[in-house]
From TrEMBL:
<protein>
    <submittedName>
        <fullName>FAD-dependent oxidoreductase</fullName>
    </submittedName>
</protein>
<keyword id="KW-0285">Flavoprotein</keyword>
<keyword id="KW-0274">FAD</keyword>
<comment type="similarity">
    <text>Belongs to the NADH dehydrogenase family.</text>
</comment>
<dbReference type="Pfam" id="PF07992">
    <property type="entry name" value="Pyr_redox_2"/>
</dbReference>
<keyword id="KW-0560">Oxidoreductase</keyword>
<dbReference type="InterPro" id="IPR023753">
    <property type="entry name" value="FAD/NAD-binding_dom"/>
</dbReference>
<dbReference type="InterPro" id="IPR051169">
    <property type="entry name" value="NADH-Q_oxidoreductase"/>
</dbReference>
<dbReference type="InterPro" id="IPR036188">
    <property type="entry name" value="FAD/NAD-bd_sf"/>
</dbReference>
<feature type="domain" description="FAD/NAD(P)-binding">
    <location>
        <begin position="4"/>
        <end position="285"/>
    </location>
</feature>
């Protein structure tokens, strides 16, 4: 009987994990199912481009994984029972229970409204393709002089504000942040960012907390009103509540607590990758939600799982960082080199050169996903004792058998 591996979510982390497992494990021994609510792979880091009016290529998952042995199941996950080892799905044909031997949880994240009134009713966001398309349509309805407020001074907020301002020069774009905008960057990168925001005519409101969002404005904690025919909410992300509703051990924010190999600390037949996982990185701090960490987490989880199933050495090197890339429209960007522990260095590349590097990285990431079994070809190995050692390190299983 084949070992059933179910991967929930086909974002960066889930798609990479499924593809890497497909090239590591012999298809005679495993059955890999990739479950995703959207039939296409969505480049989430390009949602600000889609919202601003640019078209992105369609990437059907069935085409991407054709010939790999990975089965695509288009459905939404409604619950996970890790004790019975089943996943409840909702698709076009109603509900269905999907069983597994090993589960890879990669359901990602959505926006966190932090309990601010009006966000759900009036604000737009960029956490997925449908949301980005709704924002795109709304921006197209605004007349010249229309007001757009982007809330959040992190990477997503900066990229959204600059992309919208460049694509819609007739609109008045502003950016509000609870702290400073890009204040974690090196001095050189901050100076370039300030120059870009000024060049686009973006009004910046720093150390400004939004207390309420209305149909045509946002109200700050100090009682000031910021004109906003369109409010774009990018002030943080949160995970879906599915994991927290199960018996999996989760963090205070609902992320699945994993060990150094991305395996659940409470259920060894469950792995978690991407935004959904609470993992400690090279610097001893929890990894932040980012594409920059999703891919390395996926590589590690896939390699560790494959190693356990095939009786090979299990990798457990901590995931670290290399750089931060921030697009500032289509012709400008910041490439900020960081240490493995995510500390800023003095190496910064900006302008068109930075934009080319950012595009190369984003396009390269997608190429790896769209060619899941072509990257670093490796031998597809048979499972050890038909995968009976999946729940424990193979070495430990052999030792126990010898005794």
């Amino acid at each position: 009987m084949k070992h059933r591996i179910v991967v929930l979510g086909a974002g960066y982390a889930g798609a990479v994990t499924a593809g890497r497992l497909a090239k590591r494990l012999h298809r005679d021994d495993v059955e890999i199912t990739l479950v995703n609510g959207d039939p296409d792979f969505v480049e989430r880091v390009r949602m600000h481009q889609l919202a601003s009016g640019q078209d992105l290529p369609s990437r059907p998952l069935r085409d991407l994984f054709a010939g790999t042995g990975v089965r695509i199941r288009t459905a939404f996950v409604t619950s996970v029972d890790v004790d019975r080892k089943t996943v409840e799905l909702r698709g076009g044909q109603g509900g269905e229970a999907l069983g597994y031997d090993t589960l890879v949880y990669a359901l990602g994240s959505t926006i966190a409204d932090h309990g601010v009134p009006g966000v759900a009713a009036y604000a737009h966001h960029l956490a997925g393709k449908p949301a980005a398309l709704r924002l795109r349509a709304r921006l197209g309805e605004l007349a010249p002089g229309g007001t757009v407020l982007v809330v959040g001074g992190g990477l997503t907020g900066i990229e959204a504000a600059t992309e919208i301002a460049e694509a819609h020069p007739g609109l008045k774009v502003s950016l509000a942040a609870r702290g400073g905008v890009g204040d974690w960057l090196s001095d050189k990168a901050q100076r370039h960012l300030r120059g870009a925001l000024d060049r686009f005519g973006i009004t910046v409101h720093e150390r400004t907390e939004i207390a309420r969002v209305e149909a045509d404005r946002a109200v700050t904690g100090a009682g000031d009103e910021l004109a906003a025919q369109v409010t774009v909410w990018t002030a943080g992300f949160t995970v879906h509540p599915i994991a927290a509703a199960s018996t999996l051990e989760v963090s205070g924010t609902g992320r699945i607590v994993v060990d150094a190999t991305m395996r659940s600390v409470s259920h060894p037949d469950v792995y978690a990758v991407g935004d959904a996982a609470y993992a400690i990185g090279a610097g001893g701090e929890p990894l932040r939600m980012a594409c920059a960490t999703a891919n390395p987490m996926a590589w590690l989880a896939a390699d560790a799982l494959a190693a356990r199933l095939t009786g090979r050495k299990v990798p457990d090197a901590p995931v670290g960082y290399a750089a931060q890339c921030i697009s500032l429209g289509r012709r400008d960007a910041i490439f900020q080199r960081v240490t493995h522990e995510d500390r800023m260095t003095s190496t910064v590349i900006t302008g068109r050169a930075g934009a080319r590097i950012k595009e190369f990285i984003v396009a390269g990431t997608v190429w790896g996903i769209t060619h899941p079994t072509n990257m670093a070809p490796s031998r597809r190995r048979h499972l050890l004792a038909n995968g009976e050692a999946a729940g424990a390190d193979a070495a430990q299983a052999r030792f126990a058998t010898a005794r």
